[in-house]
Amino acid sequence: MKLYILSLGAGLLIGVIYSLMGIRSPAPPIVALIGLAGILAGEQIMPLAKRIIDGPAITRPEPRP
After folding, report:
1. Residues 48 and 54 sit within 8 Å (Cβ to Cβ)
2. How far apart are CA 27 and CA 35, in angstroms?
3. Fewest beta carbons less than 10 Å away: which of 28, 49, 53, 64?
4. Among 33, 31, 6, residue whose Cα is nearest residue 14
5. Alpha-carbon gap, residue 16 to 14, rounded angstroms
6. What span, in angstroms and rounded, lies between the C-alpha atoms of 32 and 38?
């Protein structure tokens, strides 16, 4: 949770600095959010694809004594 609060605080700080300097955000907000969503989806797709390619692990049951 602390990481999320720090991330939000950093974003707010940069937003305030941009506003004080009269600089507009480098990307329109909707474009930036769509790009961020793509990054997050890409991070999730790779582990999922690896699991699908590897297939389920076949294990032999342990013999009972």
Report:
1. no
2. 10
3. 64
4. 6
5. 5
6. 10
| Separation in Å, CA 59 to CA 42, 47, 56, 62 | 30, 21, 9, 9
Three-state SS at 21:
helix
d(C-alpha 14, C-alpha 19), whole Å:
9
- Please state, in angstroms and rounded to a whole number, the distance separating the CA atoms of residues 1 and 40: 18
Contact yes or no for 25/18 (Cβ under 8 A): yes
d(CA 3, CA 42): 21
Q: Per the structure block, which two tokens stand in for 14?
A: 């940069």
Contact between 41 and 48 under an 8 Å Cβ cutoff? The reply is no
In this predicted model, what pLDDT tens digit does every residue of 6-17 receive, in sequence order? 888 888 888 888
